[in-house]
Amino acid sequence: MAGRLFARRAVGNECARREARVMVHLVILGEGQTEEVFVRDVLAPELGARGIFVRAQVVKTSKSGRGGALNLERVRTNLRDILRQRDDTYVSTMFDLYALGPTFPGFAHTRHLAAEQRAAQIEHQLSEDIVSRAGCRRERFIAHVQPHEFEALLFTDVQQICTAHPDWQRYEHDLASVRNEHATPEHINDSPTTAPSKRLMNLLKPSYKKTMHGPVIAKRIGLTAIRAACPHFGQWFDKLTALQPL
Question: pLDDT digit string (tens) for 149-164?
Fold first, then answer.
């Protein structure tokens, strides 16, 4: 009896080890708490159902600080450290185009491009930079820069924005006007007063709070709708779902 029990446990442990080997492991480095919660609560469950285990991480800015104040050297250090931790893990990013600065490769000379083209150019150059510095296999790093920022995704469904607070229903027309002025939510522009998050903060009273409201609204909208309305985000999601075990 004890022998049969031991054998069943051994078989179970071996199955668990095999499952761990075939599962795809992915770390997504976000620039702040909003992206961290979105990845954890919205993106990870959907990818997990497809056999992709996702861990959200925020850019470290100091020994105890996390999030915000992106610069290229800080991003390089974070990504290099993650990529070198284990060689069977993919690494991606979720950075806002709006938050990047001139230190990032491609940022300055792509200003004339449309948002999705500019993001794609920066992603390509950032990927080349990080792969070279980390000394990792090229396929392990998937750069993603969201045009123009995370809040663009929320304009996929302005009705769902309005359900996040009982006083926001009266702003639905204003939010819909913003959305209808642009070809996609990802085209809502990135000036200090008209970036997607600034629009929400300026239009909504009481004001929109990024970490409090953003991931909740995104979860209500759902990834299917977001992917359909936001093609650059959708392309990133498709890349992630196509990953194979390393």
Answer: 999 999 999 999 999 9
